[in-house]
Amino acid sequence: MKAWLKLLRLHHCVKNVLVFAPLFFHGRFFETHLLLSALAGWFAFTCWASAVYVLNDCLDARRDRLHPVKRFRPIASGAVSRRSACCLLVGLLLAGGAALWPVAAPGRALAWGALYVGLNVAYSFGWKHIPVLDVAILACGFLIRVMFGSAITGIAVSHWLYLTVLTGACYLGLGKRRNELRRLKGARTRRVLRFYTAEFLDRNMYLCLGLAIAFYALWSVAQGREQLVWTVPLVLLILMKYNLTIERESDGDPVEVFLHDPALIILGLAYAGLLLFLLYAPWGAV
Q1: Is 161 within 8 Å of 25 (Cβ atoms)?
Q2: DSSP letter assigned to residue 78
Q3: Rounded distance, CA 237 to CA 244, Å?
Q4: Dist. CA 253–CA 25, nearest whole Å
Q5: Inter-residue contact 215 to 163 (CB < 8 Å)
Q6: Which positions ≥6 away from 84 have C-beta within 8 Å?
Q7: pLDDT in tens for each of the 286 residues of the chain?
Q8: Torsion, CA 239, CA 171, CA 13, CA 8, rounded to 10
Q9: How far apart are CA 235 and CA 241, in angstroms?
Q10: In Å, what is the CA distance from 216 to each residue of 101, 190, 233, 260, 277?
Q11: Cβ pair 16, 145 in contact under 8 A
């Protein structure tokens, strides 16, 4: 059972909280019917994301056996057979689709889900070996989660929030590749690293970081509640701590970094609490 749970990579469902972003940032998080729809969407996206991880592990099993960490993954280590994993993959895709049937208008949400799965299938079958495109697909995974949340709740995503997520996701993707390059030195485990240099990844990583901060600041100003700018220094503090963490021993995986850094967890909770207060305080509305 432990091997099966590891195969699903359930800890990565943390990324799927982005499904709630349109609901939360629009100030409607406590509307029951919308929250239930978002919860159904979160479950559906968790199933699809796990299915993508299973597919990727099936295709990369031989190469993963050469990696100092990935060789312990269930399929690479032989703990789960490839045939059983394929059956699980199909079940996850169907479960994700079934979870959306109670939702009022699931069509657009299913389209975003299909786009996510389709991009990741293409990624697993070869696009991950194409420089820049590989990072773009990783970034799209974050953005699609937000757009999926918008589709399932019917709440539009503001332009500034859209740009914040897009540039922030590019920063995370470039940072992951940079740290992989540093640790693996372009080894046999990821071919695309041969096309990158540390300087290219570093420059573009921090370009995207600067843009993400600027777009977030513009979002906070555009909401018409001046107190929201108080969250900008906290966002800067979180990003500085994240940068410090990935400059040390890390492969740059955002989920692993956040879940294993108590300071980042505390700062993230403080940010969420402050934003919750400012968006939902009874003395005004966004």
Answers
A1: yes
A2: T
A3: 11
A4: 25
A5: yes
A6: none
A7: 777 788 888 888 889 999 999 999 998 999 999 999 999 999 999 999 999 998 888 887 777 777 767 777 788 877 788 888 889 999 999 999 898 887 766 788 899 999 999 999 999 888 999 999 999 999 999 999 999 999 999 999 999 999 999 999 999 999 999 988 887 664 556 788 889 998 999 999 999 999 999 999 999 999 888 889 999 999 999 999 999 988 876 667 888 888 889 999 999 999 999 999 998 877 544 4
A8: -130
A9: 10
A10: 34, 33, 11, 25, 18
A11: yes
Q: Which residue has the tokens 């993963």?
A: 64
Distances, alpha carbon 86 to alpha carbons 2, 30, 52, 253, in Å: 18, 38, 11, 25
- DSSP H/E element including 191: none
Q: Which amino acid is at 6?
A: K
Tokens describing residue 17: 């909280």
